[in-house]
Design goal:
14 helices; about 80% helix; about 280 residues
Length: about 280
């Protein structure tokens, strides 16, 4: 509940400013900007989140830097600044390894592998998967396992192992759809559709596009994203869906989940489709 969280921070800031100075040492001064950075991240206010990450780092004890750096790296990832995200994760690496906390080890290794995938370093990312699998087994969370399976699909697709990618994406898509996780279901469906497009399976792409729209409609909430998915569905029905359209829609959805008013550039997409058809 982001509006309620914003109100809570406004109250805490007011109480903090009026509190007795001698009581200030009772609170971890880095905790407030660190938590507020997470809120700004989920609100899509990434520049503000980065400033708060830096403020938290300047106030935190050295043993708390690892968690803050992991959070900062995630914000940079959402901003599509993948090289900076990876560099931040590398800074966190010796701190996380030294503490040996399973959850932070998992977050570090998984996010390093994910950043490498975004940078198209698929073979290097694959080298980390075995360790991430071991960490996931120890943590025992189903959602972590699904996200790892999704990552395996991306790696397989990047390395041209299409059958593996199809199996992984299909498994993850079914689980996300069952749990009603609309945005992630749409994202993995588009990645699955891209593999089918590469294989020339236009019928499968049409079916996936229809199902993707139905799932998103059932969850509701983001009209602009739904309009974008319907556009892809129409393109698939007319056998005009392309890898470029799917990639641009994935990039849009990654931004739109934090911005309910963000619109997909449908006009540019139509021009692109017309241009591709004429050529």
């Amino acid at each position: 509940s982001l509006p309620a969280a914003d109100q809570a921070f406004a109250r805490s800031d007011r109480f903090l400013s009026t509190g007795a100075p001698e009581l200030c040492g009772l609170l971890d001064t880095a905790l407030l900007p660190d938590l507020k950075a997470s809120l700004r991240h989920h609100q899509g206010r990434f520049d503000e989140a980065l400033k708060l990450h830096e403020q938290a780092l300047s106030l935190a004890k050295p043993e708390d830097h690892a968690t803050i750096l992991l959070n900062k790296a995630k914000t940079l990832e959402e901003m599509e600044r993948y090289e900076e995200s990876l560099a931040t994760l590398r800074l966190a690496e010796p701190l996380v390894d030294g503490q040996g906390k399973p959850r932070e080890l998992f977050a570090l290794r998984f996010n390093v592998a994910n950043a490498l995938v975004h940078l198209e370093e698929h073979a290097e990312a694959e080298e980390l998967v075995l360790e991430v699998k071991r960490l996931v087994a120890g943590l025992g969370t189903r959602l972590d396992g699904l996200r790892l399976r999704w990552l395996e699909g991306k790696i397989a697709a990047g390395l041209g192992r299409r059958d593996e990618a199809l199996a992984a994406f299909s498994q993850v898509r079914a689980a996300f759809s069952e749990q009603g996780i609309a945005f992630d279901s749409a994202l993995v469906t588009l990645e699955l559709a891209m593999v089918h497009l590469e294989l020339g399976h236009s019928g499968e792409v049409k079916t996936l596009a229809r199902d993707m729209v139905k799932i998103f409609e059932s969850q509701g909430g983001h009209r602009e994203a739904l309009a974008a998915l319907r556009l892809f569905c129409r393109a698939a029905e007319q056998e005009q869906a392309t890898l470029d359209l799917a990639r641009r829609l994935i990039a849009y959805l990654l931004r739109a989940r934090y911005d309910p008013e963000l619109r997909f550039d449908a006009l540019a997409t139509r021009r692109k489709l017309v241009g591709d058809r004429r050529s």
